[in-house]
Amino acid sequence: MDFRNIKEAKEAIIEYIELYSECSKRGDYKGANKNVKKILSTKDFIEENYGLETLKDLLDSDDDKILVWIAKFLLPIYEEISIAVLEKVIASNIPDSSFSAEMIMKEWRKNQ
Description:
single chain, globular, 0% strand, 74% helix, mainly alpha, 2 domains
């Protein structure tokens, strides 16, 4: 993965999150796994080149799927904000996203 700037990398991670979600809903787990790899590679690129804190503005998204992924990545840096975002998603009772947020919170608390 190689991006010219942080804006391009953020646009890519959002696109990969959306593609992952679409593939998961269709039951296309091969496609979903492919996009998870792209999400993680893009996250690694951002972390190495710009710092994960540059993703903080994505926590203002209206898209629950984006919120869950980005909050997960930012938990070690912005714990309070990330927990608040995940708790909001959990409370929204959105089928896949709320469950994912709940599992992330359980793992986070268990490892603290």
